[in-house]
Amino acid sequence: MAEYLIKNGYVFDPVQGIKGDRADIAVKDGKIVKSSDISSKAKTIDASGKTVMAGAVEIHAHIAGPKVNEGRNYRPEDKLFNYTPKSATQRMAGGFSIPTTFKTGYEYARMGYTTAMEAAMPPLFARHVHEEIKDTPIIDEGAYPVFGNNWFVMEYLKNREIENTAAYISWLLEVTKGVAVKVVNPGGTEAWGWGLNCLTIDDPVPYFDITPAEIVKGLIEANEYLGLPHSVHIHQNSLGNPGNYTVTLDTLKLAEGFKAKNKFGREQVLHSTHLQFHSYGGDNWGNFESKSKEVMDYVNKQKNITVDTGCVTLDETTTMTADGPFEHHLTELNHLKWANVDVELETAAGIVPYIYSPDIKVCEIQWAIGLELALFAKDPMRCFITTDHPNAGPFTRYPRIIKWLMSAEARKQQIDSFKHGAKMVEATHIAGIDRELTLYEIAQMTRAGPAKSLGMGHLYGGLKPGMDADVVVYDFNPEKSHKPEEIEKAFSRAAYVMKTGVPVVVNGEIVSNGNKRTIWVHAKVNENPQVMRDIKDKFLRYYSVTQANYDVSKHFVPNPYVIEVDATA
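Below the sequence we write its predicted structure tokens.
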């Protein structure tokens, strides 16, 4: 492979503690190397007056799989008038809140993202997920299978069978080619099959005689038994309801007493996702208010927890989640079209369009809460920027979120434009926060932090020799003052992006589809005949497919990167 020398940029790399020093980044054979390790024939990229970071890491988005594709099918209006034609390098691409697979890869790359995780893979439809991942260009991808409403899991945990739970997790990660244990509305989505829900951590799941608290604690224990790269990744109960912050705190407290046990460098045992949707006060939409400070006060004290924000971007979008009862609740609120599905023995999902209008007080408050979470974070290595794409807005708005976080002026401009700005200010903290995140903190929240949380800090998120050569150059001089719109512009279209040593973006344009990989985790456990018998029995009794039609075979994952875990000791 070619050699490169990215010269004289302002480097921001939390992995090495580099905070804007002028430095050179050398690349050889797809890896970051020392400058002394490349020859005089290395191609030089002039980064003078520009910001250099590692490729960004998306820890939570809905970008591949059946619910994403269903969203595309039933929302043709999302694709109107925004298609770009095929070129020598690119396929035809379109869509806004639910872009095509091709546009997903192109837009992430243009912003400097080189790795992304699909946050909710229904195991039964894992083949579909991987077909879309394979179709998405440039970026490395992985997917989280959902476990929080799985019949096997609930039955094992009801009986406190942690070893059997771990064996089942190991089996499911392998057959679905998954990355981590995802939990969505634990127990509540299964309850939805009975027309019910679990709104607190102590509500019993119908038939299974288990509570969300028992599910979450059991999965944490099983996850640490295995020593998986990532922690349990949870979407808490009571998402989107006024007053739900108490449920959020109750859930986060379940992690107390657990310590991370892994060889990958992660320190957390629980990752709380799209926290904005779980930080609500009040008891109705009339007195709805922010409880971001109360939630972050707790998170800041607990080093075994990481979070992502789920920032509202004030766009028309398409909500989609494995939290089936929430989506039904949402369609009753906004009376827009609704899709719903039950996935046998495993999960469910719903899809509803939504408009986060700057003329609606609730939406204005939601906007403030997402930003407050990041601005209240004392450790940016444990709080990451997301939109829960597309639920709070499309991922293509990350540059706008970065603008709001880096510029108090930008936040004031947005507040001044709101129809109910005064009432929003009364219900939130945003107007009283003067903190402006630095480029180093942005690198922590979008690169080093997510990579470490995923247990992939040895590959992604930094520019240390030996790491993957995912390098981004932004046309942004940190020594000059910038207007808010200039921040957004710089992070929207990178000047240069390299993915594993291959240039993929030059001056904001796609120049190569790179050499993407699919990441999955192989967790080796001791032979467990009971779990294998249980799996065979349930496929015969309940599933509409056979095991032979369930497994994700190798041809669905043509360029894998397999992370090995050995839990046999």
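Residues 50 and 475 are 5 Å apart (CA to CA).
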